[in-house]
Amino acid sequence: HSLPVPLSSGNEVQINFVNLGYKCNIHFLEHIQINLNIDYSRRGNLQIFLISPKGSLTMLLTLRHKDSYVMGFKNWNFTSVHLWGEDPRGHWRLIVRDPKNDTQKGKVTKATLILHGTDKPAGCLRYGPRRYQDEDLISQTIDRTPVLRVYSLY
After folding, report:
1. What is the DSSP string of 79-131?
2. pTM for the whole structure
3. Which of 49, 62, 96, 128 has the most beta carbons within 10 angstroms of its beta carbon?
4. What is the pLDDT of residues 72-123, one digit of tens each?
5. What is the extent of the structural domain holding 41?
6. Closest Cα partner for 97 from 5, 7, 4, 2?
């Protein structure tokens, strides 16, 4: 499957980035960048999550009730350092969701994942990965609704 991918209220799409990171020297992430084009009739309804090859869940965008912009996101960069130190090699999953039950619709027309990192671990990781107090709160924001559409990008 390829983009564009349709999306509507009460639904989600999952876009897969497979076999990433094997042809580069990045073994320890510093940050990730997702560049997206999303045409959507109410931008504030959207949630965006990224799941790393190790299973770490990162929220890139939460619901914004006062954001009624009708043009979506054009060449928009979402970044995170949440995955600092992880090995980026493998299968990444991007989830774009509209959990509202209304009549919004649109499509994801571009999704590019860019990995930034090094081939050696940062000094702060020599004693193992960091653990943050509120880290478990992120998984509570995603319900267990099954993924309705899965697309793979190569």
Report:
1. EE-TTTT----EEEEEEEEE---SS-EEEEEEEEEEEEEESS--GGGTT----
2. 0.81
3. 96
4. 999 999 999 999 999 999 999 999 999 998 999 999 999 999 999 999 887 7
5. 7-56+65-93+100-124
6. 7
1-22 b/e (C-beta count within 10 Å ≥ 16 → b): eeeebebbbebbbbbbbeebbe
Give the CATH number for residue 24.
2.60.120.260
Quickly state the pLDDT bin for 22 (edges 50, 70, 90): confident
Q: Which amino acid is at 148?
A: L
